[in-house]
């Protein structure tokens, strides 16, 4: 147990380091940006009415004061941390004066929902099927499946999503390709809403699953096809140990370990994939939020999205890391 | 009920592989016939990749592709009834596994599930055959472990927490906890230091006596055979080349290969240089015609190159497959090289 | 095994509860979303709003600068109002004069003789949607609140221009200005966001206006908020029962009982949705998309009955030279670059031929052809240019006709009648005259080495052509740069996503954009011209106020601007000044005017009909910035639809 | 390494298929060097022509011949992928070998940094760079940035191998023979990690090219530089699918899939080769 706590402590420090470095870097990068939010807002304002030049000048003065963009960068950096610890990242500029964090908070659940459900699904089902495929190498169904996932797995997230969009958005318009739920349902735990919610989640989730699935499937299949030749498996089979126990507690249980590490290592990538997919399907998550923020030059929002993404991913990895020793007694012992 | 518990008859087991047109057939076990008696320890010796492991895989009904039994039978006469493991259905096999037929696998390090506590492993292996539940089972196991000089708390341990010797004893414990009639032990002592080796051997002996079960004991190490086996069979290139009571095998081998194996044993006070056996065991994908040993055999004659010798009985219980078995003499203590063709 | 699945289940549960929380959040965001059954199609108008996802959908306080991106979700068209609206097209017969509508105002502005005071009479009988009457007090409150609150949209404007404002009586407002300003009223004349009037009785009780969402908004227009998407992709507005008590209602009955604004629809989806009858007005499509949908669905119409379909906006797309860079200081060079261009190629590349060309610095849209392009045609035909070795007449009055011929193969419905062609394809443009261009460059001291032009200082003549990352302007820039490059100019096209910021601070060489925007329906050019005055010019790196992006400085220009300032908005002399400006511009060529920013906004006659078009140009059909509100009084449901 | 390839081609159908696919794409991309048209020019051909004898892949709405356009695009994308791969290989091999061989605090520090990189979501970071650099984010800069983000996984992998090698006989000999660490790493260990380097090389190309496609389609790269991504970007801009210019989307997508599939097969079969057990299973014995 002490060993475990030690391990957890080390990991936690790492987590903090990741978050700190990540966020600081993000802050620096965004503030090196030549983009001046005041000019952004002014641009949008003057482009859409006929303000006289002196009117524009006066407005600029007022806004610079209001946004506090005239402070030295170090000052801004400290303020930033101070505010961040209070969970406040300043007002978004594309939705002034709504706090950036509100926007993120509104988008995050969509992303997490999509990410978590698709990842868990791909991870569990992919590994289970992979295990069976590795255990029954000659089963034609699994063979076909293997080929299929080999064919799909390498295609970039975007392209897969794009293909789905074209097929179901245009040639075979049976599924919604846009938004989080239909405009004819009211949010809430009503059946219509949940149905609509699921319908709209199908394509984004599908694209993630299609891409993510293969990795787990193939990886697990390879692992298992090796592990079933391991002595302890052969031995257990010789001893006539019950099939389910062999597959479960001997084969999968051991193959799970590298897969779990893999999960931790790929989470970042999966997250990226999710926000890409969201962009394709106009899913109201972090992805489209980030893209908007970039296009509007809204750096407090960009910062908020990046901060939350980094923290969320690092946190998820942390959790997975913590699970690992629970599954592998050997680590625990160290 | 006969005195033989195992009758192996004309057993042929080949590795058959087909990889993108590349067809290869490795005759790991090529026409072996032998028997094992009740209550005896039958030692099987042979160099690595001589096919001995494949042979016992068949005995243990552990045949897995690409290894296939192409011919012959392996009949056990268990108290529960006779069974030919080559033809038996999985269900029938289930029925005899561990209860009647158990197996100590090579490499104690790797036969235990690294992420499973010993106790659970015992439950996985033995609960079904023993048909005991919770408490009773627990006691049975603990008591059996005690016999193996293992404390009860190994049950709560993970394999990596045990020493090599303990682990080996655990595996033997696993194989014997159900008091099977027939135990197959594959190199159970290799990779153990000599002291532990002794322990383990006597342990196996003990248990075998107590339970009056039969043991097939495989190792390339002749000295181990000397210590434990009642009879020894020598496998070379997938064939049983000689078989006989241990003493005779050691002091009056009737096959040049055996002679060499025996000779290669170190003896106290013996300093004579022994001619090492040159050449390597034949590639089983295409074994030499005639006697498979002839390329390496000091006694080889044309006949050996043409026809493969049958196993003929040369003394009580003693069979060998050599055209020139009469010329074979123990190399031990020999001064001048013998068997130079006249 | 079971332990693992338990753990996974655990995480799953955690995440899902998180998601649930988020949905709860969305729920709290007051989403009484519509059941479409409530909205019979013949009472409901569905409009495409070109914005992306609206990130703070619950924000209806559009007096705060940069408040959200809900800029054309119906709020300003349906619930806000101000004194006048100047239509970018001809405006409604009877309801408007010179395209000027009196909206809240009962008549035109009244200035004193030196333009230091302005009096406005308000229409009586106009009521806010909560039953409170609209009076001069609301106006006074609005102006004073703005002056006092930095961060409100007109804070700068009022502080810079308004000394005092008082309510003479409930229906009369009197402004005293800080200086003479004959165009002060334009602040209250809507383009997109105008100086909307605040409901005093609501805002006077608000502690901090900058953080007041104003949800639901009290409406001064004929519609009120029905419901909106908490995820910011649609808004539904419902007609007030007392719609007659609004300025728009007094002009005519808005026919739709419900108006739905839908945003965040990808270009492809717009086409699909319109074809499926889920959109009545689409703000814009790509040229290709327009051609294909008009082919597929006869009920769908554009501005022109046939090719080129698109509506010419009162913005003039041009190649803007950065005049503060020595590269372009010589007007002969600027002219040479202009004469190298091929109008046909530009039209085809950018709009597949559907461009409305203009050689002069006034967009060929709205009533401008009547006031400028028509009258100036002869001047242009006879316009002479000294290339240094000879004088030429660079203008080609028939290029429009030629383009019409070119496209007729693919689009038989392209017009044939000459005036129709001129209105659709433009009155003419410069002949591509490479020889004249060479002569001009040579006379400017440039020399040609191989196929590369060298500047007088011996350096190769190289520069980048900045274009946005998409749309027709991008295509136009690409072909322009290409044409120059093919003629020995080291022009490199550069697609940038931040063109707007960069043109503001002058961080470009040549910029394909527009420095000209006009009322469209009214000949007054002050809309853009006033900002051309040299007093506003900033050095490179500093932010130049709209719209003199080329930083063109010329005493003659200042003189002209001052004359315009001194004359009344509706004084016919304005047109003459306009002509003067055009001629001055031609002489200097500070930027190369090319074509109107044509927008492919299309409408469907499936459920509603009576849309504006070239034959009945009473309004601009684009759905975001134009005065589209008048369209709602003109359309009628299609029988049996 | 050569013998490795021979074995793979002999015993591993996936590898062979992968080789063929990648070969096809490379050949196609190579054609761009003899291209008769400058891919950056527009409206040189009649727009929107379906595939024909004259234009094998048809023409797009920008009046470009898609065959040559795509050929150039794929060349650029492959070059991009290679650049990133090479650069990031340099980092990952250095880090991996150093960490694995030197061990101790060097290892700990390097792996700590490594873990930081592993757990940073890369796409938002890239978008961030675009947000700051905008038009200055040219292809090479992007490649550089991605190289700096794309090494940690492989470094870890190489490290684990190097660790194994460290305790091998020949390493000790080399060390006793007084070889410098650098020499040991380069001359003794590198050959052993070569297959892994190859596999990770392919994976890295997959990764970077996929991200390039994504960024480009979102308009976050140099759009005048034809690549897999920008081709799709322009086809979206011209709503190619809905207006029926399907070849402008379908052909690139198919080619992209071929490319990625090929690279993936190479990487996968090489990985299998690296794992001796699965190799043996294939080759028998």
Question: How would you summarize what this structure contains?
Answer:
The complex is a heterotetramer of chains A (334), B (342), C (641) and D (285). Chain B is α/β, with parallel strands linked by helices and 342 residues long.
Please, could you describe this protein's structure?
The complex is a heterotetramer of chains A (334), B (342), C (641) and D (285). With 334 residues, chain A is mainly α. Chain A has helices at 2-32, 37-46, 53-67, 73-85, 100-135, 140-152, 157-171, 191-227, 231-238, 243-281, 286-295, 299-327, 329-333. In chain A, helix 5 crosses helix 8 (191-227), helix 8 crosses helix 10 and helix 9 packs across helix 10. The longest helix of chain A is centred in the C-terminal third of the chain and has 39 residues, at 243-281. Chain A is globular and about 90 Å long. The termini of chain A are close together. The model of chain A has no long low-confidence stretch (mean pLDDT 83). Chain C is α+β, with helices and mostly antiparallel strands and 641 residues long. Helices cover 31% and strands 19% of the residues of chain C. Chain C has a 5-stranded mixed sheet with strand order 23-22-24-15-25. Chain C has a 4-stranded mixed sheet with strand order 1-12-11-10, with no helix packed on it. The radius of gyration of chain C is 26 Å and the shape is globular. In chain D, helix 3 (66-102) runs antiparallel to helix 4 (104-118), helix 3 packs antiparallel against helix 9 and helix 8 (169-176) packs across helix 9. The longest helix of chain D is centred in the first third of the chain and has 37 residues, at 66-102. Chain D starts with a helix and ends with a helix. At the A-C interface, helix 2, helix 3, helix 5, helix 10 and helix 11 of A face helix 1, helix 4, helix 7 and helix 16 of C.
Strand content bin of chain D? under 5%
Give the fraction of residues assigned to helices of chain D.
over 70%
Order of helices and strands of chain D: HHHHHHHHHHHH
Main interface pair? A-C, 84 and 86 residues
Tally the helices of chain D: what do you get? Answer: 12
Structural class of chain A: mainly alpha
The helix fraction of chain A, in percent, is over 70%
Strand content of chain A: under 5%
The counted number of beta strands of chain D is 0
Q: In whole angstroms, how far apart are the ends of chain D?
A: 22 Å
Distinct helical segment count of chain A: 13
- Estimated radius of gyration of chain D: 22 Å
The parts of chain A where pLDDT drops under 50 for at least 5 residues are none
Mean pLDDT of chain D equals 85
Question: In this structure, how is the largest beta sheet of chain A organized?
Answer: none
Shape of chain A: globular
Give the averaged pLDDT of chain A, no decimals: 83
Which class of secondary structure composition applies to the elements of chain D? mainly alpha
How far apart are the termini of chain A? 10 Å
Shape of chain D: elongated
Compressed to H and E, one letter per element, the order of chain A equals HHHHHHHHHHHHH
